Model the fold of this input.
Amino acid sequence: MVTATAEPRSLPAAEGDGHKHKKNALSDGQGRLAWILLAPTLIIIAVVAGIPVILSFWQSLHQTNAGVDPTTGLVAGGDKFVGLQNFTAIFTGANPVTGSFGTMDRFWNAFLNTTFITIVCVILETVIGVAMALIMAKAFRGRGIVRAGILVPWAIPTIVSALMWKLIFDSSGVMNKIIGKEILWLADSGASFWAIVIADTWKTAPFIGLLTLAGLQTIPAEVYEAAKVDGATTWQQFVRITLPMVKPALVVAVLFRTLDTLRMFDLPYGMIGPGKYRVETMSVFAYQEAAQTRYGPAAAYAIILFIYVLLVAFLFVRILGAEVIGDADAPKKKKKKGDEEPAGPPATALEMAGGAH
Amino acid sequence: MTFVRPGRRVLIAAASMSALFVAAACGGGGGAPSGGGSSAAGADFSKQGDIEVWQGKDTSGNFQKLIDKFNSQHPNGKVTFHELPDSADQQRQQMVQNTQIKNPKMAVLSVDVVWTAEFAAKQYVEALPPDQFPTEGFLKPTIDSATYFGKMYAYPSTSDGGLLYYRKDLLDKYGLKPPTSFDEMKAACDKITAGEKDSKLGCFAGQYNKYEGLTVNFDEAVHGAGGVIVGDDGKPNVATPEATMGLQTLTDWFKDGHIPKAAITWQEEQGRKAFQDGDLIFHRNWGYVYNLANKTDGSSKIAGKFDVAPLPGITQPGVSSLGGHNYAIAKFAENKGTAVDFLKFMSSPETQKSNTLATSNSPTLEAVYSDPDVVKKLPFMPTQLKSIQTAKPRPKAVEYGDVTLAIQDAAYGALQGQTAPDAALQQLQTKLQTLIK
Amino acid sequence: MSATTAEVREEHLSSEEIAKLAHPQRPLRQRIGVVLSYVGMGLIVVYCILPFYWMVVSSLRLPTEGQSTEFIPSPASIDNYKGVFSAQNNFGRSLINSVIVAGTTTILVLLFGIIGAYALARLRFRGKVLVLWLIMACSMFPLVVLLPPLLKMFSSTSPFTWFPYWINTYQSVILPGLSFGLPLAVWTLTAFFKQLPVELEQAAMVDGCTPGVAFRKVILPLAAPGVLTTAIIVFIGSWNEFLLALTFLQDKDKQTATVAISKFTGTTGFDTPYGTIMAAGVVVTVPLLIAVLVFQRRIVAGLTAGGVK
Done:
């Protein structure tokens, strides 16, 4: 029942793949109105996010004068323009630290940590989330309670959540009590990596669960019935029917979770603490540099992170074809029988939810 | 895929926008206004008016009372207490940020002793006029902690030194006296644990998590072995056999279990809890533990069973690392006259005594330590006084954040067994030489 | 087994057989499936609730027992809650501030987001994808590095001397909060509006409405689940925000709940008052949970709206 309201820009109505373009009867010559309606949003974003971003770009091309005058002991202060030095400095290995991947420059350590944490977290969240969705799709009564319960991890403020996990992971805390061993979760060790993964997955797996559930509910039962009649096993049903049809929802969910986990700050900072190289992410590193009033390098690292995030988003969209903008302008592969719109849009809703700071 | 083309459009749009904004941003010479600008001479210390004191939480309620008292005596300039978050790092962040934006209301800052060099060098605070701020009566280390390049940049308000808490009941049971060296401590522990046959009973712990407390404990160990981190000439000299012995001692104690393995994650509170639960014979901590460990409400299992002693050394008498806070006057404060008056008020003997009785924080005026009321309520004060008088400061550096991180890297790596102590200290020496010139 | 394939006999069916017809026995395999799914649901609930349970339990201990690991607090005490609302902490006031900030942010986000999403979903103009990506890109920058420039801006420091002085005002937190909530809202609402066919509005316009009224009266109600979802997401995000509030709302009377929690100390300044902080966490979370529970049908309907259609 859903129609594709494709908005052709300046192309004639007919396109090569022959699908109908519905010219939106409401939308003639409405460019000006559109810009008026979008103006508040764009102005706010430009002023409150755009200008600081630009300023950060500018800041990343400077360094603070740190020289100490030998007679008065005072620091000269002020900024000097250094071009791209803050960016190239990460390749000189001037600041080696030892992390989970050996000894390397602190920036690359943070980069590898961030990437590794993201990969592990996202994979775990996806697996657990999809499992949750499958279970919830089947169960009949009590679904409301489960849905309510699932939203609990989300509703707790992050600073409280970080402290709560700190309490749980304390060396004499309840986690060790249950396991029976004394694992040093909060030291700078391999265990702290897993502490972060556990805490983050707890908070975000439910998202992927709900999103996938939405996707699952778009699959009409008849498809499964037909497959059963044809003799498909449960596994085959899962692989051939379920997975492909939840793919749009799932991909969008995974995309936004990945982007958010790449920028992870609160958990490593609040639960483990700064200066622990095994779990230092790029956000934490940039923050620490800014705290040391090295605003130039801090801005440079944040920009690199920003570009990294943007690149990952691009790749996702490119390779996996995430329907992030619904059907806007993207030539879609239309199914022959009926216009089944993949459950992209409801997915975005919840996934952006995961992005709420 | 159509997404690539819009991406390029985004770049073009962003580029043109940025050109516009860079033009706007350039107008003011966009950069941190720290330092530069006004020289210290000519700071106006006469202006009176309302000011704010920026400090961490008032845990006892006494600070507000003191402020009210000052306000009643000082009608032409009232003080408001601006509370800062609990964490020291965030307190410093707030002060630095508000200096950058030249907040005129922020006038008096409670500056941790290790921040003095940074705040002075980067001109976040004013050099104090020496005629208005006499130094007689103050403990020497506290005055030293507020001085930079010969000038005083803050006025001492509270101090702190490390103490050795010990289980008097256990030591008495085995006829032992409080140890003065680590070897004596080890011998005492072995005797006690052999006799008590309690597998949970640990020997000793300080603070070894990777944070400022580790720097403190490392500092004490190094000094206790006759080494230094930064020498008297102001140059780092930590790759010495003495310093190595200090770090080696701690590492060995971790290895053979005299320091519990879990202590690598302990800050002050975890150690205090272990001691109060009866799981430690000896414990290094600050003065605040005394009254808490003596509480009879059930939170402490060792109330009345412990005492304090000076820190044990390794080859030398124990030396504690100096802690505490000083009050400084913010550079861009508008009403520095009131700030000056407030500083004098807070460091007067009556105020210090009142503060000490309420919070059990250690004062900076020597006379307060022998005040009978103080000694009655806080019997550990005489030991604390000795601890502070012989205390040594942590390295003074403008970029103290980097220095302490480097120290923590070295110490933590060695304690976890990942680096050999001498190698760790070699690396530390190299790093410090670039940081402290 | 399958009573459904039972042939209709000429005789009357016995009551047993009728009973069997009325309640067909499900095959064992299916039964196990049902049981397993209930077990699975139980696991899910436990997974989600257990750490929260720990938080609640920790808040109900004696204040000095903050780090105890007993599963049930004994003795249970509400001292921590009393401590949270003690005069020192000014917690009640900070809750009100949080409500003001989060509420205003949500309302403004909805307002601007809805009209913006309308433009993107219904109107035809060039540069749509550019706008969408720009909006998303601006929310990808880590907040921690945006803070120094924002601080300069809101305190009228150069190069922003032309900007009004906004330190200690609500708008200094609301506006950056908007810049994080708007991308989310715009994208979500655009998707929701797109899903609803234009014909509905066209039908309303045939009846004589203008496009705007048609949108308001026809589409918005239908998109209500989606709008509600967005509202709750933005509200929770703004409620939990910490760094902005810490930096800009400095006065004790203006600070929000999360900042107030960060300033909790125990009795000494060294100790982390786990008890009071967990209690404060419960106090801050429970209203959200109740709101979520009350609206959860709507939320999930909103999330699955596209699918159900």
Observations:
- Chain C touches chain B at residues 62, 64-65, 67, 88, 127, 129-130, 133-134, 137, 148, 151-152, 155, 157-161, 167, 246-247, 250, 252, 259, 262-272 (CB under 8 Å).
- Chain C is about 70% helix and 0% strand.
- Residues 83-308 of chain C form a domain with the MetI-like fold fold (CATH 1.10.3720.10).
- Residues 1-6 of chain C have pLDDT under 50 and may be disordered.
